[in-house]
Description:
The complex is a heterodimer.
Chain A: H1 2-23, H2 27-47, H3 51-76, H4 89-113, H5 128-138, H6 140-162
Helix pairs in contact in A: 1-2, 2-3
Chain B: H1 3-23, H2 27-51, H3 56-86
Helix pairs in contact in B: 1-2, 2-3
Amino acid sequence: MLENSIFFILALFLVGGSIGMISFRQSVFSAISFLLAMIAMSGMFALLHFSFLFLAQILVSVGAVVVMSLLIIVSVNIKSENLPNDKLTLKRFTLSAILISPIVALLFYAINKTDLMFKEVNEEFGSLKLMGVDLFSNWALAFEIISILLLVALVGGIVISKRSSNYESR
Amino acid sequence: MNPDNFLYLSIILFAIGLIGIISRKNLFVIYMSIELMLSSVNLVLATFSRVHSEHDGAVIALLMIAVIAAEAAIFLALIVYLYKNTKTIDSEAFTQLSHKRGAK
Lengths: 170, 104
């Protein structure tokens, strides 16, 4: 019962934060709503008994990614009149919602047909130790590929921000 | 707790992210919508991992978090580069690869 109420509170924060993220005009408010949604998402992982995933989500998604985007938004400092003209936003929201409603209805129908249940798990499930054992025994190659990807992203980020040639816009 | 609720929630989040990508022109909002969609997939992976009492789904979710970090680095560097050169973050202003460029 307690878990259910926690789930609904977190779901409220998640959906509210993400709707706020796509509807605020100022990027800073969008980023703060997104921060709220990401914190609620880490709460979801904690609710699913994955304590290490909860920590990683807090550290990486909230602590690094969202805070870095907030920092970039603040340092770019776009004036209100230079923001893109989103006057048609409500119309576009409705149109895109109509556009993607069939696939959402199909997925809802598919989940409705399934018969899934949470089994009882012991205290150790989702801990750092068991996750690490699985990561380095079954997913070692994926882990190494991800480390190369991160290195490439690091170098690419530096190269892109060092380039000086002019981009011509319309 | 029902696994169905988690799956419904992640579908709703994915739909919100898709709506954000389609309907907004602000590059920052597009970037955060992509991240929201990736995170909703993470929630699906964690839910199925918990349903089957195996760690594999959670490990994939952990690797996905690293992919999200890499994507954030590249995307933010691109946004800063584009803003430095054009003084705008309107996604409709960047048409160098578009075939319609000469027409307008």
